[in-house]
What we know:
Layout: E1 10-13, E2 16-19, E3 24-27, E4 30-32, H1 36-47, E5 52-54, H2 55-62, H3 71-86, E6 96-99, E7 103-106, E8 119-122, E9 126-127, H4 135-149, E10 156-157, H5 160-163, H6 173-180, E11 184-193, E12 196-205, E13 210-220, H7 224-238, H8 245-250, H9 259-272, H10 279-292, H11 297-312, H12 322-335, H13 340-352, H14 356-369, H15 374-386, H16 390-403, H17 409-419, H18 423-432, H19 439-451, H20 455-468, H21 473-484, H22 488-502, H23 509-518, H24 522-534, H25 556-565
Parallel strand pairs: 8-10, 8-11, 9-11
Antiparallel strand pairs: 1-2, 2-3, 3-4, 5-7, 6-7, 11-12, 12-13
Amino acid sequence: MQGIAPAHGTLRFGPFGADLLARELRKQGVRIKLPDQSFRVLGMLLECPGKLVSREALQQQIWPSDTFVDFEQGLNNSIKRLREALGDSAEMPQYIETLPRRGYRFIGAIDATSRRIQSLAVLPLEDLSHTGEQEYFAEGLTEALITTLAKIGELRVISRTSVMQYQGVRKPLSEIARELGVDAIVEGTVLRAGDRVRITAQLIDTPVETHLWAESYERDMRDILDLQSEVAHAIAREIRIKLTPIDEARLAKSHPVNPEAYEAYLKGRYYWNRRPAKLAEAIPCFEQAIAKDPTYAPAYAGLADCFSSLGAWALVSAEEGCVKAKGLALRALEIDHGSAEGHSALAYASMYHYDFLAAEREFEWAIEINPRYATAHHLFGWYLCTMGRHEESYTEFQRAIRLDPLSVTKSLLGNNWLYSRRYDRAIEQFTKDLDPDYGPSHSVLGWAYRCKSLYEPAITALQKGVELWPGSAPIAMLGEAYAAAGHRDAAHKILEELDRLSKQRYVTPYVVARIHFTLGERTEALHWLEVAYRQRAEWMVLLKVDPCFDDLRSDPRFQDLMRRMNFPT
């Protein structure tokens, strides 16, 4: 008789699931306490459904002669406990049939049709405090669990942006799974009380909405990272994914994190995910996390992302944006060189620091470390777009969309159409995926209309962008649209407004150059591009692909500027 084979994974019968590797019995996903010897008996019976398992075989495998437990008593007690757990009886058995003096036989029907789960979504954990004050905490733990599960190479896990759109939404789980294109869903709750946190989670197979697994965990906040790893291991085991040594290394238990640092980090990511409007609120949270735990690498990566984003949105100068971001990302990698978030943050900062080859190398590192990290694919797609590598960019954006199907990446895909001069496709993409409350969505749609010489809808969309997107960039884009539409006075008024604003806060010289060139003021445009180069202005990364400057590309002064930008060939 063979022993329990770990390769069998979880066997299902009726409402029960028996995990042969973890030696756990569950009913509708809820674990049932069962002594180890009783489970081993069950495992041997499940290995040979419908066939006799003799008493001699049971004794040899479970009660060999060198044990201190009486075989007869041990076997009788194990069968009794097993029947109690299954709600079975010797007189009218559903699962365990007794063959007197010979042995036992499993007579239940084992589900042989269980499909392999290869993709899942973690829905927003419900905050049981119901005060609203812990919303950031529940959302942060949801994102952290997604990040942990995404480290499993064979498992596709939908990223945070897409699943957060189901927060508070009452829909059948099968419908949500269909919209996200996943095989299974994880849902649960979180309750924070002081330095203790309690998480419940359950795994549901869709579309039949069968509960596969459920568990409750309570931990000290210092052990929260270990808890996330434990949940990921449990889910991987339940869906029968074999973890590779690389997966195990990625899921390896982390050192305890300072509770106050972790809470500040979660709050920082909560605000960062609402960028650009909430970036200013995210920064002090990450700074607080670093102050509480100077060895917590994710906090450095998060702060680096903030400064890079401030630069990318043209809200601060390079000194306040990518330069700071690069130093923070390097510090994150000094602490944890295996951090995909750290490598992605360094790539993002390097890109806007005009260190293009380093940016590409770091993006590739981030994706190699964690192929399921949607943000790295998303930003790498944008990098490839600015380099004019549009086919590669399209492929990378599609990878990001597959991991995060409802995110703004679809809108960025419109940028790829825009900068490859396929304006109709760009307008179609931007219109289809327009977020009515997101300023950049309106601005890029307006920019696409402007490139198509559709000036009225361009101005309307850009005016909406100015309302919703802080900073000088959307104002300048509107000025450029006025110039292109022949409204020269309106364009010059925008230039005057930008000059006034520059005395109070940062105004990117790149967009000033675009207005001047659209007005036909070539020398002024080249002057402001030179200023932008000296200041390492963020949007200079667009110089290679920007349609606005197509008629300037033959100018020797522009060609000299392009050489100094040192774009990869």
